[in-house]
Amino acid sequence: MSELRRVAARRGHQLPADASVKRRIASWENGHSSPDDFYGPLLCEAFGIDAAELGLNHADARDSTLLDAGYPASPEAAIDTVDRLWRADLNSYEPLLTAEPSEPAWSEASLRWLVAPEPSFPVARGADRLRVGLADVSTVKATGDMFAQLDDRFGGDHARHAVIQFLSRDVAPLLNGQYTEPVGRALFSTVAEATLLAGWMSYDACHHGLAQRYFLQALRLAQDANDRRLAGSILSAMSHQATFLGRYTPAATLARAARMGISPVATPTLRAQFHAMEARALARTGDTRACELALAEATKALESRNSDDEPEWITYFDETELAAEAAHCFRDVNSARQAVAHAENAMSGNHVRSDFFVTMVLADAHLRAGEPEEACRVALDALDLGEQLKSARCVSYLAEFRQHLSRAADSTAVHDFHEQAAEHRLWIATDKLLAK
């Protein structure tokens, strides 16, 4: 009982009297009821076990509402929804992990953000709430940055559960705490950035409906923080995911909404990134001319950047990153030689997963250029790069290459490649994906 109270206190909650809690425990033990989404996470933390071990992988009425991919109507709704999302994810709520993304939700969110009135803020909370200061915000920021580095190096499936655990157990009590408006806005912006990371990691793990829901909550938090630059970046992330899922028209629209929505405060790097996302979507539609125009605008914007005026979280987007985006685009419009040239300029050596993606694009471009031997050599380089990555997206890139390679003429080089590739973990994972 004492440990349960200590866990509750750390989360900013106060349990009822011992007699009341004991009645609840007796009801759970006798099978008359199950711990709800308040007590369930407390018990998991108190006993040091996950929801599955505790037998909590069940749906309840509140969990089922999370399957509706709606844009929160208020900051209070955003806090409540994202808190429940983190808990349901942490408890491995299967319908959420396997949910499909909603195309109307992208349109609704971008429109509501674009036409939103002045940012609102949660009403003042009671004095008994956990007091939150800028030091707490800095802690969240530093921890999120650490997880972002792990994501970049090892893929979204490596530390995704740890990120959600941190958000649910350490960050949720801060959102529900007591803070001044300036601290609150800083907190909302930082939590929006961390929730965006949770969305990226979930997307990388191919939990696409869940990722979309995290993006939606992050957008609402950024709106209430009055952080329009971050909000635009969240819309850009939505565009990236929509292109990956084959929803090319919504993807282009989201990229344009990002650019339009932050135009008064846009930086050159942000504009370049949004143009690049639009180009990625347009390339997939086969509109070569529009794709090239968008890439030209991205290049022009990036040439005028001033790193001192850029948000810290977008400074990764440089000429190397733009070359990687261009390589994707030219591959998709079947300009194989241009794709090869851009991909060869896109190896950063600093971002493992990004380097894997662009190396696979280079391999695919060589294949489309009629060079299967070179394609196989490059693909083996990618497999070596990806040996430490836990990323369903990486598996999908490799699976696409395998399908294209199967249509190439058989040769000794292709046969040797299959033998060498068979030993790699990502290649084995594609066996399972292609067998579905």
Notes on the protein architecture:
By secondary structure, this protein is an all-alpha fold. It folds into 4 domains: 1-54, no CATH class; 72-116 and 130-226, no CATH class; 247-317, no CATH class; 319-436, Serine Threonine Protein Phosphatase 5, Tetratricopeptide repeat (Alpha Horseshoe). 70% of the residues lie in helices and 0% in strands. It has 23 helices and no strands. It has helices at residues 2-10, 18-29, 39-47, 51-54, 61-65, 75-90, 94-97, 103-114, 134-154, 156-175, 181-204, 208-224, 228-244, 248-261, 268-285, 288-303, 319-332, 336-344, 352-368, 372-385, 392-405, 412-421, 425-435. α11 (181-204) packs antiparallel against α12 and α19 runs antiparallel to α20. It is globular and about 75 Å long. It starts with a helix and ends with a helix. The model has no long low-confidence stretch (mean pLDDT 89).
* Alpha carbon gyration radius: 23 Å
Number of helices: 23
Question: Average pLDDT, to the nearest integer?
Answer: 89
What portion of residues is helical?
Answer: over 70%
Strand content: under 5%
Domain module count: 4
Which geometry do the CA atoms define?
globular
Structural class label: mainly alpha
The first-to-last residue Cα distance is 48 Å
